[in-house]
């Protein structure tokens, strides 16, 4: 496994990474919910559903070309 040549640009600009970070945050909130006071009115599986939707969006974002990020791998036959 090796990094793409423009990994710094990908790290800063890729929607895939942004969405996956959001999914991790939502998952962490879901794990912390039992520690929060019971007066907080949040449905039980809300964060699980939001995390699933966010991961699905990251999957789609991975397949879509994103402005400002280009990578031409000489070993990749599909351009």
From TrEMBL:
Question: What residue intervals traverse the membrane?
Answer: 47-65
UniProt keyword list: Membrane, Transmembrane, Transmembrane helix
**Listed Pfam families:** DUF7940
Q: Which domain of life is it from?
A: Bacteria
> What protein name applies here?
Holin
């Amino acid at each position: 496994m090796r990094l793409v040549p423009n990994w710094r640009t990908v790290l800063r600009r890729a929607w895939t990474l942004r969405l996956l970070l959001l999914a991790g945050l939502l998952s962490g909130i879901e794990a912390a919910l039992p520690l929060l006071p019971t007066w907080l009115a949040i449905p039980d599986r809300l964060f699980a559903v939001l995390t699933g939707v966010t991961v699905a969006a990251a999957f789609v974002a991975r397949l879509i070309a994103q402005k400002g990020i280009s990578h031409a791998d000489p070993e990749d036959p599909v351009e």
